[in-house]
Write a structure and sequence with these properties.
By secondary structure, the chain is α/β, with parallel strands linked by helices. Helices cover about 40% and strands about 15% of the residues. The model has no long low-confidence stretch (mean pLDDT about 95).
């Protein structure tokens, strides 16, 4: 019997990649897309394989109708708002969309909970705030921006509602993912596109650090979470590599594999809050979820460069 997956945020970077992996794994995939959404480039070439439902996460009635029709076995919640700096002043929308979205998902899941094997919620490393050592799931969270606060609230609400309704759920705290279909304005696609076209780059600070994880590994973490065998209600797991890379080091690898002989300008912003360390403790994910990132940063960069060369039209 074909398993049914319901995906929110399927038009986003991680969501579109998770959607593709679900199709490859043989799932019947249903996705929620807002009626007014025009930004469908990430799923344009797989639309015919998907069951697309138009609606909004904060519209409880529409969501109820969809779930009564679909009866999903797995829910992958990747829809979010406010992750990029350009949204940082939309405080009300960041809080409302994120918090009401996950609340509504659990409300409708409760009504068909006999069908549901797992809800996989998407958290963020931003929930931790700035730490001076690898971030563990049991650490005290102290986010430094509204988005981090909103995502932390969603993680806590997922835990509470999962336990209250007895619906299995896992939150994945994603670190610095990169790869196919990433937003053109983000660091990785910007430097790779610039290198391919030999365009001048203007960047922030080469000493800023990230725990970069390739998108194929991120998607595999969602598969591991969805197939967890046992009772688990709202627990949290990191998704990262446990290896720290500076922006400068990442850029040098891009230059090595893509070739580049133009100018790089580092602006060194004074007021940007950036940690000296940004590192995932992956012990819990490896032990319980049996998840491990297998793609080295060199492999991930080469795969991304190859894909962007073949899909450069998305980034012009």
């Amino acid at each position: 019997m074909t398993e049914i997956a319901f995906v929110t945020g399927a038009t986003g970077f991680i969501g579109s990649n998770v959607t593709r992996m679900l199709l490859k794994r043989g799932f019947e995939v249903h996705v929620l897309v807002r009626e007014e959404t025009k930004n469908l480039w990430r799923i344009d070439n797989i639309k015919e394989e998907l069951h697309i439902h138009h609606g909004d996460l904060i519209d409880l009635g529409t969501l109820e109708n969809i779930f009564q029709e679909v009866h999903p076995n797995y829910i992958f919640h990747l829809a979010t708002y406010g992750a990029y700096p350009r949204y940082e002043n939309d405080i009300e929308k960041i809080i409302t969309i994120n918090s009401i979205g996950i609340k509504n998902l659990f409300e409708v899941a409760k009504k068909v909970k006999s069908d549901i094997n797992m809800i996989v919620n998407t958290g963020s490393s931003s929930e931790y705030g700035i730490k001076d050592k690898p971030m563990k799931e049991g650490d005290f969270e102290s986010p430094i921006n509204v988005y981090g606060v909103a995502k932390l609230f969603c993680t806590k609400l997922c835990n509470v509602l999962s336990n209250e309704y007895k619906i299995p759920a896992i939150t994945l705290r994603i670190f610095s993912s990169y790869g196919y279909y990433e937003d053109p304005r983000r660091f990785v696609p910007y430097v790779i596109k610039s290198a391919i076209l030999n365009e001048r780059m203007t960047l922030s600070n080469p000493n800023f650090v990230r725990d970069f994880i390739f998108i194929d590994d991120v998607c595999e973490a969602y598969m591991c979470a969805s197939k967890f065998d046992g009772d688990i209600y709202g627990d949290v797991f990191n998704v990262g590599t446990g290896k720290e890379t500076t922006l400068g080091e990442f850029l040098q690898k891009v230059i090595k594999y893509a070739g580049y002989n133009n100018k790089v300008v580092w602006t060194y912003p004074e007021k940007q809050d950036e940690p000296k360390h940004w590192l995932c403790d992956k012990t819990k994910s490896e032990r319980i979820l049996k998840f491990k990132a297998n793609t080295s940063i060199d492999q991930g960069i080469q795969l991304t460069i190859q894909w962007m060369r073949e899909n450069l039209n998305y980034y012009r």
